Amino acid sequence: MTVSAEALRFRFGPFGRTLTPSALRTARVLQYPWPAFGGWGWRFGRLDGGSAQAYSVPFRNDGVAVTSAEGRTYYISSRAPARLVEA
């Protein structure tokens, strides 16, 4: 995962996304919602009443839920989720 003034980039293996600051609506710290995704890796599930994608690593229970301006939700595992939300 990379955060810069230009974009938030996150990936799991060859799969990933790049979101520009104007494409971000919300970001919040969230413990990994195991029932929503059912495992680790690049996963699809439901979060906050809508479809979501998770980019998560095993045994890392902290992360960030990011909602894009288009209404898509992504869960991203992070060692420092509070710093990620701040950035």
How are the elements arranged and paired?
Layout: E1 2-3, E2 8-12, E3 15-19, E4 24-31, H1 34-37, E5 41-47, E6 50-56, E7 62-68, E8 73-77, H2 81-86
Parallel strand pairs: 6-8
Antiparallel strand pairs: 1-2, 2-3, 4-7, 5-6, 7-8
Give a short overview.
This protein has helices at 34-37, 81-86, and strands at 2-3, 8-12, 15-19, 24-31, 41-47, 50-56, 62-68, 73-77. By secondary structure, it is mainly beta.
Low-confidence stretches are none
Name the overall outline: globular
Number of strands: 8
Please estimate the helix content.
10-25%
Sheet of most strands: 5 strands, mixed
Measure the end-to-end span: 12 Å
Class from helix and strand fractions: mainly beta
How are strands sequenced across the largest beta sheet?
A: 4-7-8-6-5
Secondary-structure element string: EEEEHEEEEH
Radius of gyration: 12 Å
Q: Count every helix, treating DSSP H or I runs of 4 or more residues as helices.
A: 2
Average residue pLDDT: 89
Q: Could you characterize what this model shows?
A:
It is a single chain. The chain has 2 helices and 8 strands, in the order ββββαββββα. The protein has 87 residues and is mainly beta. The strands form 2 sheets. The chain has a 5-stranded mixed β-sheet with strand order 4-7-8-6-5. A 3-stranded antiparallel β-sheet has the order 1-2-3, with no helix packed on it. The mean pLDDT is 89.
